[in-house]
Structures are given as structure tokens and as C-alpha cells.
Amino acid sequence: MYVTSTMVLIFMVVPILAIMPLSLNDSQFLTYPVRAFTGRWYVELFTSSRWSLAIWNSFLIGLSAAVIAGVLGTLAAAGLSLSNFQGKRALSTLLISPMIVPVIVFGVGLALFLGPLGLVRNYGSIIAAHAALGTPFVLITVTASMSTFDRTLLRAAASLGASPVYTFYRVTMPIITPGLISGFVFAFATSFDEVIIIILIGGPEHRTLPREMFSSLRENISPTIAAAATVMTIVAILVVGAIEMLKAERK
């Protein structure tokens, strides 16, 4: 069992680690062995107008989409957890469908729907699309946080004269905050790594880091791609680390 698990782990991790030394290779091509070490590909990544725009767009779209997903997912989770009505299960399935449906299907549907309305190739529609992809993660994590929520706290707050809004911010929010932050992180990671939707409904000025890497692989293979991949890997590690810290705090 341990041998199998170790082999699977190596199979998953080695391809990721193999690209990192190439980001420091003083060669114009993504090839081994490493001829000499240099940091010029990272300098190009952060100073080139093309790559710096991609990094800026990735964080702008990712953070904006994560904030919207956090608000929508939290409200949806609170409404579904604190109420009972006919069709609740069907509504829950509908809300998490963007996470289940293949992204290519979701993206083509968006392009066909938004195209005739003239709503493609702008930041608003891209952020909204990424928020739709991230909302299910917030919905699931916040719902999990509310699974142990004691509803008598709401009745106690109401009996003391607290308004529903005040009760939500002072009673409910502190309890669901770990789930909200976890969902926010997942929503950001989903947007940060997304490439299909940005290709289908984005314009030339909306290049993100994954899209720029995809385009560079087709047009001009450069070790800068390895530097960008390393940066994305580090961001992913930080995301996982943040989630693990939240889990530790909850325990």
C-alpha cells in the first residue's frame, strides 16, 4: 500500500518538479541537461509588457471573481441551510452545476449566449463567468461549516432584539468564516488556472497567465514559460498551505 502510494505521488509530482530547473536554464530551449543557471527568464516574466499584463489580468480577474463568488456562495449556502422548501435539492444541484459540467461546454454556452448581446470581450463578463465557476466551491465549504450550526443562536439573538442583518454579521459570520475563506481560496485558484473561457469570450487585451502560456507554446517555446509555470506552482502551494492552516485553526 505504501509503495503504491509513493509511486503514485512520484508520478504526480515529478513532472511538476522537472519543469522548475528549466526556468533557471541558460538556454533558449526547454531541454536538459541544464547548461548554466540564470534568472533572466524570471526578469523577462515580470518586466515584459506581455507577461506582466498577463500576471496583472490573472490576479485582477481571479480576486474579483473570488470576491463575487464568496458573496453569492455564502448567501446561497445560508439560504439553503437555514430554510426548507420544495425543490431545495434541485436548486442545490443547479447551483453546483458549473463545477460538474465540463468547462468547454460551459464556455461555449457562454459564448453563444453573450455573443449576440455584445457582452463578450470585456472584463465584466469574464469576471462573472469565473465567479460562476467559483461559486460552487464557496457554496460547498460554507454549507459544510453550517452543518454544525446551532439555530438556537439565531432565536436567542432575535429574542434579544437583534435584527436579521445584525445577527448574520455577529453570530453567523464568525462561525462560517473558515468555510468562507476556504471557498474564496478555491474560487481564486479556479479562476487563476482557467484558460478555456478566457479564450472563448476574452479579447486580446484580456490575456491571463495560463492563456499566455498556451499561446506561447504554440507560437514561440521559451523558458519564460517554465518560469511562469513555476510561479503558478508556487501560488498553488501557497493556496494549499493557506487551506491547511485554516483546517488547523478549526481543530
List the topology elements.
Layout: H1 2-22, H2 40-47, H3 49-81, H4 88-95, H5 97-100, H6 103-114, H7 123-146, H8 152-159, H9 164-192, H10 196-201, H11 209-219, H12 224-250
Helix pairs in contact: 1-12, 2-3, 2-12, 3-7, 3-9, 3-11, 7-9, 8-9, 9-12
How far do the termini sit from each other? 28 Å
Compute the average pLDDT.
83
Sheet/helix structural class: mainly alpha
Rg for CA atoms = 22 Å
Low-confidence spans: none
Describe this structure in words.
There is one protein chain. The chain is mainly α and 251 residues long. The protein is built from twelve helices and no strands. α7 crosses α9. The mean pLDDT is 83.
Q: What keyword list fits this structure?
A:
0% strand, 251 residues, mainly alpha
